[in-house]
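U., I forgot to send this yesterday:
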Amino acid sequence: MKRRHLLQMLAGVPASAVLLAACGKRKASPNALKPDARVLALGDSLTFGYGASPETAWPAKLGELTGWQVENAGVNGDTSAGALERLPALLSAGSYDAILIGIGGNDMLRGVSPASTRENLAALIEQARAHTPHVAVLATPAPDAMRAAVGSLSDATFYEEVAKSGQALLVAGVYSGVLSDAALRSDRIHANAKGYAQVAEQLAEQLKAAGWR
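Result:
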């Protein structure tokens, strides 16, 4: 077809159709996980789903939203030191396409020094990144009864620092936002089924924005 005729044809095509065609050819993000990816969710009672049934914990809900096989490795009462002890065995027992780390809340509640928690988180990220480049850290809010009462919890600052230095994806504001809402909590520091569903939805959104899906 001659170029002049081609240009005449294109001139009659709506701009929206051209944009749709271009979008249709857009390649998936190079960071995207495969549809049936195996994902390890390492954490404490918030990962375990304390305050709700196992099938409503956020790892289970995240699996439903994404199609990923999300393994719940949350342990009630666990600390960053405990997670660091558990991680090598978990990694040697399976191969994961992504690792989500949500730990540190119990450290803060028990008065563990922030320096120790940062050190343990850094080691967790390092081990996880040696296993897969897809590593995300879920920030936990700093315990503050007054801020919780008025619904304005905020993430502990060291999560951003450690995630950045370890080249991990920071998932910010999810736990703090959910736990700031009394309607989404089962007690002072745990979510209920509705809250865990919110965690999964917001986590899925942030992972999508990062190109993981």
